[in-house]
Amino acid sequence: MEEKKESLKRSSQKRGMGRHQMGPVEKAEDFKGTLKKLVQYISQYHIALIAAAIFTIGSTIFNIIGPKVLGRATTEIFNGLVSRVQGGAGINFKRIGYILLIMICLYLTSMAMSYIQGFVMTGVVQKISFRMRNEIVGKMNRLPMNYYDKHSNGDVLSRITNDVDTLTQGLNQSVTQLISSAATLIGILVMMLSISPMMTLIALLLLPVSAVGIALIVKHSQKYFVSQQNYLGDVNGQIEENFGGHNVVKLFTREDIVLKDFDKTNEKLYTSAWKSQFISGLAQPVMVFVGNLGYVGVVILGGYLSIRKTIEVGDIQSFIQYVKQFTQPIQQVAQVSNMLQSTMAAAERVFIFLEEKEEVLSAMDHTEMSIKDIKGNITFSHVCFGYYPDKIILKDFSADVKEGQKIAIVGPTGAGKTTLVKLLMRFYDLNSGEIYMDGTNVKDFDKTEIRNAFGMVLQDTWLFKGTIMENIRYGRLDATDEEVIAASKAAHAHHFIQTLPGGYEMELNEEATNVSQGQKQLLTIARAILANKKLLILDEATSSVDTRTEVRIQKAMDNLMKGRTSFIIAHRLSTIRDADCILVMKDGDIIEQGNHDELMKQSGFYAELYRSQFEETA
Length: 618
Known about the structure:
The protein is of the alpha/beta class. It has helices spanning about 1-20, 30-40, 45-85, 95-140, 145-150, 155-195, 195-245, 245-250, 255-280, 285-305, 315-355, 415-425, 445-450, 470-475, 480-490, 495-500, 515-530, 545-560, 595-600, 605-615, and strands at about 380-385, 395-400, 405-410, 430-435, 440, 455-460, 465, 505-510, 535-540, 565-570, 580-585, 590-595. It is elongated, with a radius of gyration of 36 Å. The protein starts with a helix and ends with a helix.
């Protein structure tokens, strides 16, 4: 539960980053290294990126020239009014119209270039997103099973959704924003210097003042943003727990206690959120105040210089516009730096995943035997295995399985039952010992070949969103409708399928909750029958159904196991009484083996397990 809370905290912190520009951001551990990898990754789109940069700079330049041209119009109007007062020709509207036409052309050109840049950059970013998601999904299928033992499904899912989205959005916004901000800053500085170096100096002197003010605000608000995100995680954790265990809360009438605990955490969230928002909100008034001081200084000095005929009246207007625009790229760079940190953090997680060591599927010395010729004789010879070197699960395990035999594997939780079949399918490699299939070491087959030889029916049924026909046909994609129906009949699933609305064309939802657990199990058995594999693994296939449904599933499994070497992992010992051989496992060792009657006569561990189950049900 603590891990779940921490996960909720982290997810809420990520959501909070989008809301608060000045909030804490997740940072990459190796920023430079990740940036280098990212540059290499997107380098194949360098022509489009260069084009986007050129159009971004062009759009910025044409936009910057506008105020200077508008200042000329203002100067023309001012000079015309002065001329009329002095008895001259007055305002030259033709020239003003010409200036305004130039200005409209500049802004239209800027808009067109900005549109082209957006079109090009969006295309590049979506191509990167498409390619990256494809590579992640491909990587998921090439990773060894032990990767998923050490990482949660949510963590892997987060990389293909949240991280790729954060990365692509960051690229789309930060790259062009950085180029635009740099071009704007340089361009405005050049235009300001061209009007008046003295006025530019006054404007630049105000920058350190605003920078110091914002730095102080950020310093004081940062701790409140951190506590806000932590308390937000606590609130989310409490809500998730209370909704998940709502029935338990009601059962024990603990609503008042739950509400009291939530009020305390919510109060802390309110206090920290209020302080962080209020203090960070002071940044804008500070910048406006400093900006207004700059306007006052510029107007006073500009008026003085205009009287001395050093600059024109319109230049004052242009300069004020430039001063107003000058702080914008600085703010944008500050915001982009936060976004860039998040982008690099997301990129780092994606690249770490893509660089994970992959499973080697090909055999070094491939056997000449075809997997299609396998009959189903399996030999375990002194098998030793542990998920960690210092924690061995299977210790010197040996057994002989003959073609067509039904082998049951029983034992307490943690004895190594499921581990045994995972080794058989080469999801993991042995620490020592060998496994032979018809006399050939399984290491001499490609891993895909070995896995193609097995059919599986698991306790946790897996059905996807689609029709019942499509879900059963997943076992053999080239099967006809008639073959699918025949497999369903053998699995005792045909009758209930016909009673469903739409029959075989009924659409299962994403969780397959529109059919019962027993019906789902029968569908997976039908799928295994259709696959028609030489070897079969049944892992707790009847553990989550009622006794009556279990009888139907047992009949279906008997049809499935005919003529196949079958490994049955079971807790309900009544389901494996007719097994040819029962392997009794305890602490990674086979402590007993034989058929049901033989083991009962021994009055050992199996007999004790069997009697205890019937005593519990009596």
